[in-house]
Specification:
Layout lengths: L1 E6 L3 H12 L4 E7 L2 H11 L3 E5 L7 H11 L4 E6 L7 H6 L4 E4 L4 H12 L8 H11 L7 H4 L8 H11 L4 H8 L3 H14 L5 H10 L10
Parallel strand pairs: 1-2, 1-3, 3-4, 4-5
Protein backbone atom coordinates (compact mmCIF):
# COMPACT_ATOMS: atom_id res chain seq x y z
CA UNK A 1 0.00 0.00 0.00
CA UNK A 2 1.40 3.39 -1.03
CA UNK A 3 0.94 6.03 1.65
CA UNK A 4 0.09 9.47 0.22
CA UNK A 5 -0.07 12.91 1.85
CA UNK A 6 -1.98 15.72 0.14
CA UNK A 7 -0.86 19.33 0.61
CA UNK A 8 -2.76 22.26 -0.91
CA UNK A 9 -4.14 25.51 0.48
CA UNK A 10 -7.50 24.95 -1.22
CA UNK A 11 -9.82 22.60 0.64
CA UNK A 12 -11.67 21.56 -2.53
CA UNK A 13 -8.43 20.59 -4.24
CA UNK A 14 -7.36 18.54 -1.23
CA UNK A 15 -10.74 16.80 -1.15
CA UNK A 16 -10.54 16.03 -4.87
CA UNK A 17 -7.03 14.60 -4.65
CA UNK A 18 -7.98 12.52 -1.62
CA UNK A 19 -11.00 11.11 -3.44
CA UNK A 20 -8.93 10.20 -6.51
CA UNK A 21 -6.24 8.49 -4.45
CA UNK A 22 -8.59 6.58 -2.19
CA UNK A 23 -10.45 5.17 -5.18
CA UNK A 24 -7.33 3.10 -5.91
CA UNK A 25 -6.77 -0.24 -4.20
CA UNK A 26 -3.05 0.29 -3.70
CA UNK A 27 -3.15 3.88 -2.39
CA UNK A 28 -4.16 5.31 0.95
CA UNK A 29 -4.19 8.94 2.05
CA UNK A 30 -2.57 9.30 5.47
CA UNK A 31 -3.45 12.95 5.91
CA UNK A 32 -3.69 16.37 4.31
CA UNK A 33 -2.36 19.83 5.04
CA UNK A 34 -3.13 23.39 3.99
CA UNK A 35 0.35 24.90 3.93
CA UNK A 36 4.04 24.03 4.14
CA UNK A 37 4.30 24.21 7.91
CA UNK A 38 1.39 21.82 8.35
CA UNK A 39 2.95 19.62 5.66
CA UNK A 40 6.22 19.25 7.57
CA UNK A 41 4.32 18.27 10.71
CA UNK A 42 2.14 15.84 8.76
CA UNK A 43 5.06 14.11 7.05
CA UNK A 44 6.95 13.73 10.33
CA UNK A 45 3.88 12.24 11.98
CA UNK A 46 2.32 10.11 9.22
CA UNK A 47 5.46 9.03 7.28
CA UNK A 48 3.95 9.01 3.77
CA UNK A 49 5.74 7.48 0.81
CA UNK A 50 4.66 10.25 -1.56
CA UNK A 51 3.65 13.86 -0.92
CA UNK A 52 1.49 15.67 -3.46
CA UNK A 53 2.56 19.25 -2.72
CA UNK A 54 1.16 22.51 -4.06
CA UNK A 55 3.88 25.00 -4.97
CA UNK A 56 2.16 28.24 -3.96
CA UNK A 57 0.86 28.26 -0.39
CA UNK A 58 0.70 30.71 2.53
CA UNK A 59 3.10 30.74 5.51
CA UNK A 60 5.55 28.29 3.90
CA UNK A 61 5.43 27.52 0.18
CA UNK A 62 5.88 24.10 -1.35
CA UNK A 63 9.43 24.73 -2.55
CA UNK A 64 10.76 25.57 0.92
CA UNK A 65 8.76 22.75 2.50
CA UNK A 66 10.26 20.33 -0.04
CA UNK A 67 13.76 21.66 0.64
CA UNK A 68 13.36 21.19 4.39
CA UNK A 69 12.05 17.64 3.92
CA UNK A 70 14.99 16.77 1.67
CA UNK A 71 17.56 18.28 4.01
CA UNK A 72 16.05 16.45 6.97
CA UNK A 73 16.72 13.14 5.25
CA UNK A 74 13.04 12.19 5.19
CA UNK A 75 12.44 9.40 2.67
CA UNK A 76 9.13 10.80 1.39
CA UNK A 77 9.14 11.61 -2.33
CA UNK A 78 7.62 14.95 -3.27
CA UNK A 79 5.58 15.57 -6.41
CA UNK A 80 4.95 19.28 -6.86
CA UNK A 81 1.57 20.43 -8.16
CA UNK A 82 1.34 23.59 -10.26
CA UNK A 83 -1.42 25.44 -12.08
CA UNK A 84 0.68 26.92 -14.86
CA UNK A 85 2.85 24.99 -17.29
CA UNK A 86 5.67 27.53 -16.99
CA UNK A 87 5.49 28.22 -13.29
CA UNK A 88 8.75 29.95 -12.32
CA UNK A 89 8.81 28.00 -9.07
CA UNK A 90 9.18 24.65 -10.79
CA UNK A 91 12.92 24.68 -11.43
CA UNK A 92 13.52 25.80 -7.84
CA UNK A 93 11.33 22.91 -6.69
CA UNK A 94 13.40 20.40 -8.64
CA UNK A 95 16.57 21.85 -7.13
CA UNK A 96 14.97 21.60 -3.70
CA UNK A 97 14.63 17.84 -4.07
CA UNK A 98 11.27 17.27 -5.73
CA UNK A 99 11.01 14.03 -7.67
CA UNK A 100 8.91 15.70 -10.34
CA UNK A 101 5.84 17.79 -10.89
CA UNK A 102 2.39 17.65 -12.39
CA UNK A 103 -0.13 20.17 -13.61
CA UNK A 104 -3.24 20.34 -11.46
CA UNK A 105 -5.41 19.52 -14.48
CA UNK A 106 -3.56 16.25 -15.08
CA UNK A 107 -6.08 13.42 -15.72
CA UNK A 108 -6.65 11.20 -12.67
CA UNK A 109 -5.13 8.12 -14.32
CA UNK A 110 -1.90 10.02 -15.05
CA UNK A 111 -1.81 11.36 -11.52
CA UNK A 112 -2.10 7.87 -10.08
CA UNK A 113 0.55 6.56 -12.45
CA UNK A 114 2.84 9.37 -11.30
CA UNK A 115 2.34 8.49 -7.65
CA UNK A 116 3.25 4.86 -8.36
CA UNK A 117 6.32 5.84 -10.41
CA UNK A 118 7.67 8.08 -7.68
CA UNK A 119 6.84 5.60 -4.92
CA UNK A 120 8.87 2.99 -6.81
CA UNK A 121 11.92 5.24 -6.58
CA UNK A 122 11.86 6.61 -10.12
CA UNK A 123 11.21 10.23 -11.09
CA UNK A 124 8.85 12.09 -13.37
CA UNK A 125 10.89 12.94 -16.43
CA UNK A 126 8.81 11.50 -19.24
CA UNK A 127 6.34 14.34 -19.93
CA UNK A 128 7.66 16.75 -22.54
CA UNK A 129 6.75 19.67 -20.32
CA UNK A 130 9.30 18.51 -17.75
CA UNK A 131 12.07 18.64 -20.30
CA UNK A 132 10.91 22.06 -21.51
CA UNK A 133 10.79 23.50 -18.01
CA UNK A 134 14.16 22.12 -17.02
CA UNK A 135 15.72 23.51 -20.17
CA UNK A 136 13.99 26.87 -19.78
CA UNK A 137 15.03 27.48 -16.21
CA UNK A 138 18.42 25.81 -16.46
CA UNK A 139 19.36 28.30 -19.17
CA UNK A 140 19.76 30.92 -16.47
CA UNK A 141 21.74 28.70 -14.11
CA UNK A 142 25.44 29.37 -13.51
CA UNK A 143 27.84 27.37 -15.63
CA UNK A 144 30.87 25.49 -14.38
CA UNK A 145 33.33 22.84 -15.52
CA UNK A 146 31.72 19.56 -14.38
CA UNK A 147 35.09 17.81 -14.12
CA UNK A 148 36.09 20.14 -11.28
CA UNK A 149 32.82 21.59 -9.98
CA UNK A 150 30.46 18.60 -9.89
CA UNK A 151 31.13 16.54 -6.73
CA UNK A 152 31.85 12.93 -7.70
CA UNK A 153 32.05 13.60 -11.46
CA UNK A 154 35.64 12.40 -11.61
CA UNK A 155 34.47 8.99 -10.38
CA UNK A 156 32.18 8.45 -13.37
CA UNK A 157 33.26 6.16 -16.18
CA UNK A 158 32.99 7.33 -19.78
CA UNK A 159 29.90 5.16 -20.24
CA UNK A 160 28.29 6.58 -17.10
CA UNK A 161 28.87 10.11 -18.41
CA UNK A 162 27.13 9.09 -21.64
CA UNK A 163 24.19 7.77 -19.66
CA UNK A 164 23.99 10.95 -17.57
CA UNK A 165 23.94 13.13 -20.70
CA UNK A 166 21.07 11.12 -22.16
CA UNK A 167 19.21 11.22 -18.85
CA UNK A 168 19.57 15.01 -19.01
CA UNK A 169 17.70 14.97 -22.31
CA UNK A 170 14.81 13.25 -20.55
CA UNK A 171 15.34 9.80 -22.08
CA UNK A 172 13.93 6.78 -20.28
CA UNK A 173 16.07 3.73 -19.50
CA UNK A 174 14.67 1.99 -22.58
CA UNK A 175 15.50 4.97 -24.80
CA UNK A 176 19.01 5.23 -23.34
CA UNK A 177 19.50 1.51 -23.95
CA UNK A 178 18.43 1.84 -27.57
CA UNK A 179 20.68 4.86 -28.13
CA UNK A 180 23.77 3.25 -26.61
CA UNK A 181 23.04 -0.29 -27.86
CA UNK A 182 22.89 -1.65 -24.32
CA UNK A 183 20.48 -3.85 -22.42
CA UNK A 184 17.90 -2.00 -20.32
CA UNK A 185 19.10 -3.80 -17.18
CA UNK A 186 22.65 -2.58 -17.89
CA UNK A 187 21.40 0.99 -18.24
CA UNK A 188 19.53 0.70 -14.96
CA UNK A 189 22.77 -0.38 -13.30
CA UNK A 190 24.62 2.58 -14.83
CA UNK A 191 21.91 4.98 -13.64
CA UNK A 192 22.17 3.61 -10.12
CA UNK A 193 25.94 4.06 -10.13
CA UNK A 194 25.66 7.62 -11.44
CA UNK A 195 23.26 8.53 -8.65
CA UNK A 196 25.44 6.86 -6.04
CA UNK A 197 28.70 8.46 -7.20
CA UNK A 198 27.15 11.92 -7.46
CA UNK A 199 25.26 11.50 -4.15
CA UNK A 200 21.92 12.24 -5.83
CA UNK A 201 18.57 10.83 -4.79
CA UNK A 202 16.94 10.33 -8.20
CA UNK A 203 16.97 11.05 -11.92
CA UNK A 204 15.51 14.52 -11.57
CA UNK A 205 18.40 15.61 -9.38
CA UNK A 206 20.83 14.12 -11.90
CA UNK A 207 19.22 16.11 -14.72
CA UNK A 208 19.33 19.36 -12.75
CA UNK A 209 22.99 18.78 -11.86
CA UNK A 210 23.89 18.03 -15.49
CA UNK A 211 22.46 21.37 -16.60
CA UNK A 212 23.74 23.37 -13.66
CA UNK A 213 27.30 22.18 -13.97
CA UNK A 214 27.42 22.61 -17.74
CA UNK A 215 27.65 18.95 -18.70
CA UNK A 216 24.87 19.65 -21.19
CA UNK A 217 23.31 22.91 -22.29
CA UNK A 218 19.62 23.63 -22.84
CA UNK A 219 18.36 22.97 -26.32
CA UNK A 220 21.30 20.82 -27.40
CA UNK A 221 21.46 17.10 -28.05
CA UNK A 222 23.89 16.70 -25.13
Amino acid sequence: MIRVAVVDDQALVRAGLRMICEAEDDLTVVGDAGDGIEALELVARAMPDVVLMDIRMPRLDGVEACRQLTESGNAARVVMLTTFDLDDYVYAALRAGASGFLLKDTPPEQLMAAVRIVAAGDALLAPSITRRLIETFASGAPRADPSTAMPGFDQLTEREVDVLKLMARGLSNAEVAETLFLGEATVKTHVGRVLMKLSLRDRVQAVVAAYEFGLVTPGTSA
